From TrEMBL:
Superkingdom in the source lineage: Eukaryota
Record SUPFAM superfamilies: VC0467-like
Protein name: Uncharacterized protein
Pfam families named among the record's database cross-references: DUF179 (PF02622)
Length: 348
């Protein structure tokens, strides 16, 4: 914290009220006050950080009034009519300004598999977030008559745990395992991703039907009570706000293959894991409609200010898309690795 005399502060606030652009988030005032108290060098070295850019985006969202024109509404409305049944694979929105920049960053460029949908809630699991620990499994080699231990990345599926689903969720997308009827298809569709039990996986490994790295192991679920993501009650329709897009069935295999490249999370492989997750997300694009923030207008930001290029953080050369990716990395490092200051590396 810094201190300065009240008259100086009041004069600067009065100037901001008539001349400052709210999208600057008060950073100019902070720099001015730091200069007044002889901390100009400190202020200069801290300008242009990840935190500054996030603050500017917060100011843009909450201090500037934004409206959406009828074209964008019609695109969102058409997309929201696609019904998400169990077995549907979703991906985080591909709009230029991620809806998950300022909150719920784990869903930015995420992949979510819908497990169930009823009148009360939609339940799904995120697939692209390996945790910093693996799940060990002892398997017997019948030919050699020995037991050996395998480790699979344990993925964070969400913040909730169902009482009847305290053990991890096992998923596969293998035609061979489908043919052997290992597990059950989610949603009842044979071509969907299949869910199986620990015991079924153990038998499949023992019988050499599959390798452990063909499975995704998920801990936790994501829960959306109806009304939070649904356009119409009891219809299980999502995407009303454009937060998610449906991955075409033809893209699921490519998505799955990219996810299988991820490993147990460490400080050394954090970026590689994120890159593989984004690779999987990109593979799920298909021909889905893309909602674009070009249809948003900014109003009430003060007289005499022209709209800046919307794909950049205000008055910087930093792309919002890059900032969103950085925010995802900070979430992974903070929430999955427990390293809260890893975001400092983003400024270098």
């Amino acid at each position: 914290m810094v201190a300065t005399d009240s008259n100086t502060l009041l004069k600067e606030l009065a100037r901001q009220n008539t001349a400052a652009d709210p999208r600057e988030a008060g950073l100019e005032t902070w720099e001015y006050i730091m200069k007044m108290i002889g901390r100009e060098v400190t202020a200069r070295t801290s300008v242009g950080t990840f935190d500054d850019y996030m603050l500017k985006e917060w100011a843009r969202k909450y201090l500037s009034q934004r409206t959406m024109n009828d074209t964008a509404k019609s695109v969102n409305s058409a997309d929201s009519r696609k019904k998400c049944v169990p077995g549907t694979l979703l991906r985080g929105s591909s709009v230029r300004r991620s809806p998950f920049l300022l909150s719920n960053q784990e869903f930015h460029k995420s992949l979510v598999l819908i497990l169930s949908d009823d009148e009360d809630a939609t339940i799904g699991v995120m697939l692209n977030h390996p945790a910093a620990k693996g799940l060990q499994m002892e398997v017997k080699d019948t030919r050699m008559n020995i037991n050996y231990v395998l480790t699979a990345p344990l993925r964070v599926g969400g913040d909730y745990v169902l009482e009847e689903s305290e053990s991890p969720i096992w998923l596969h997308n293998s035609p061979k395992l489908r043919g052997a009827q290992v597990g059950t298809p989610i949603g009842g569709c044979w071509e969907h991703i299949w869910q199986c039990t620990y015991e079924e996986v153990a038998v499949a490994l023992t019988d050499n039907l599959a390798k452990l790295d063909e499975f995704l192991v998920i801990s936790g679920i994501t829960l959306w009570p109806k009304g939070d993501i649904d356009a119409e009650e009891n219809f299980g329709e999502m995407l009303e706000d454009g937060s998610f897009e449906i991955v075409p069935p033809s893209c699921v295999e490519s998505v799955w293959n990219s996810l299988l490249k991820q490993r147990v999370l460490t400080e050394r492989n954090i970026q590689q894991n994120i890159d593989y997750g984004i690779e999987a997300w990109s593979a799920g694009e298909g021909d889905s409609l893309e909602n674009d923030d070009d249809n948003f207008d900014i109003h009430s930001i003060g007289m005499g200010y022209e709209e800046e290029e919307d794909s950049f953080v205000f008055n910087t050369d930093v792309k919002v898309a890059k900032l969103s990716d950085d925010a995802l990395r900070v979430w992974v490092s903070s929430c999955l690795l427990g390293i809260a200051d890893l975001g400092d590396d983003l400024n270098e």
